[in-house]
Design a protein that fits this description.
There is one protein chain. This protein folds into two domains: 74 residues, no CATH class; 55 residues, Nucleic acid-binding proteins (OB fold (Dihydrolipoamide Acetyltransferase, E2P), Beta Barrel). The chain is 42% helix and 19% strand. It is built from three helices and five strands. Strand 2 and strand 3 form a beta hairpin. The N and C termini lie far apart (66 Å).
């Protein structure tokens, strides 16, 4: 393949990963391997096509083994200071809930089922603390108002 073919192939893979496909950084390193294979050709080393493919494969594997895990953890890892569980956070109730009644709220970018686990009515607009989580249901208690 000519050098410009490798460069186009590398740019396509890099662009795919960065703009749309969520492939966990695999395409980034394969794209870099293709671009480096093209740069080897630009540098004047004229390799047979089968050697080009071997260089491409080896570079891709080496990049993934050496750098992917570190880069993935750095960019997409757990995130510093982010607690996994919502227990203890405060939410604003979007409808009046009697004791034992369920409703819906928007929380952390998605809709959740909320259950009034307390013995008092929670009024619409009240900010209450999440006392526990059972499955996909957030249990709130009116005595925990902010």
């Amino acid at each position: 393949m000519p050098w410009w073919g490798w460069m186009i192939f590398g740019a396509f893979l890099l662009g795919s990963e960065l703009l749309g496909v969520e492939a966990g950084f695999y395409l980034v390193f394969i794209g870099l391997a293709a671009a480096l294979t093209g740069l080897i050709e630009v540098a004047g080393l004229e390799l047979a096509p089968w050697i080009q493919w071997i260089v491409f494969a080896v570079l891709g594997l080496v990049f993934m083994v050496l750098f992917r895990k570190k880069l993935y953890q750095k960019l997409r890892g757990a995130g510093a200071g982010y607690d996994a569980g919502p227990t203890g956070d405060y939410v604003k109730v979007e409808e009046t809930l009697r004791p034992g009644e369920k409703g819906r709220i928007a929380y952390r970018g998605s809709n959740w089922t909320v259950l009034n686990a307390g013995s008092e009515v929670v009024e619409k607009g009240a900010s209450v603390r999440i006392s526990s989580v059972v499955g996909l249901t957030l249990n709130i208690n009116s005595s925990n108002e902010k």
